[in-house]
Amino acid sequence: MVGGWTNQNADDSEYMDRAWKAVSSINDNASNNGPYHFIPIKVISAKTQVVAGVQHKFEVVVGQSTCKKGDTDPKTIKASNCQLKDDGSRAIYEVTLWEKPWENFEEYNVQKVRDVESNEQF
C-alpha cells in the first residue's frame, strides 16, 4: 500500500546498525535516568514507510552497558568500547528514523515503551 507501513525483517543486520546509530538519542532520552548508558541488544520489530524519504520504525531491546554516564560521550558508544552489563536493567524503546539520503538527512525520535523483566526472553 502506497504511504502505508510495510513490515520488515527485524533480524536484518541493517536494523541493528540503525539501533547502534540511535544509541545517542536513546541515552539522551529523559527516561534513561540510571548511571549507565544503554546499548542495543536485539531489534524485535521493524517496518518502513515511504514519505519524502523513508521512515523506519523499530522496537529495540536495550540494556545497561559498562559505560558510565559522564565517563563516555554517548556519541562515541560502540560495541567495541561498551559491553552489556550482566546485571543491568533492560528496556524496550521504539525508534523512528526518518532518512532522506539524497540530502544526507537523518532524524531520530525515541520513546521508551516499557521496562523488561529479568526473566523475559527475546
UniProtKB/TrEMBL annotation:
<dbReference type="GO" id="GO:0004869">
    <property type="term" value="F:cysteine-type endopeptidase inhibitor activity"/>
</dbReference>
<comment type="similarity">
    <text>Belongs to the cystatin family.</text>
</comment>
<protein>
    <recommendedName>
        <fullName>Cystatin domain-containing protein</fullName>
    </recommendedName>
</protein>
<keyword id="KW-0789">Thiol protease inhibitor</keyword>
<dbReference type="InterPro" id="IPR000010">
    <property type="entry name" value="Cystatin_dom"/>
</dbReference>
<dbReference type="Pfam" id="PF00031">
    <property type="entry name" value="Cystatin"/>
</dbReference>
<dbReference type="GO" id="GO:0031982">
    <property type="term" value="C:vesicle"/>
</dbReference>
<dbReference type="InterPro" id="IPR046350">
    <property type="entry name" value="Cystatin_sf"/>
</dbReference>
<dbReference type="GO" id="GO:0005615">
    <property type="term" value="C:extracellular space"/>
</dbReference>
<keyword id="KW-0646">Protease inhibitor</keyword>
<dbReference type="GO" id="GO:0005737">
    <property type="term" value="C:cytoplasm"/>
</dbReference>
<feature type="domain" description="Cystatin">
    <location>
        <begin position="1"/>
        <end position="114"/>
    </location>
</feature>
